[in-house]
Amino acid sequence: MTPTLIWILVALVAVGLYLSWTAGRLDRLHSRIDAARAALDAQLLRRASVAQELATSGVLDPAASIVLYEAAHAARQAEEEQREVAESELSQALRAVFGEVQQVEAVRAAPGGEEAAGELAQAVRRVPMARRFHNDAVRAARALRRHRAVRWVRLAGHAPFPLAFEMDDEPPVALADRPTS
Q1: Closest by Cα among 170, 175, 3, 174 to 87
Q2: Most CB atoms within 10 A, among 47, 137, 154, 166?
């Protein structure tokens, strides 16, 4: 074998190893996106469920109960295309209902209210974290998919381009500052 042929083989093996490593990395990022999306969906569902349970408990005044129930129900029933808007509306409803510390204190004073307020506080704090993890994974996958080698060799296959989950997830101040026990 000539030295030129050996160098060509070494270069082909190196390129093959690089492409294999990049494809594996891209696959792991897509798996991470799927896991982060499942965690985000679970946290959003938990938040909507706790809000809906609190709205039907009779602890809140009727107007607040209706606003919170309708927003939570809409968030739970939303189609994928409308999910970000429905979840943002639930965040706005939570801020409207629990915008003041007095409302949270009224919930805590009711029988079983301490537990319900704590559960809701945990739920509203976990949603931004889950969304951040998901969007970080999406950002990393997008950056890798923009590389020329990934595009030219089509290492992403038929996987859809990952989309970030954009919503208003700011928690009510009265619930966000409340320490969990």
Answers
A1: 170
A2: 47
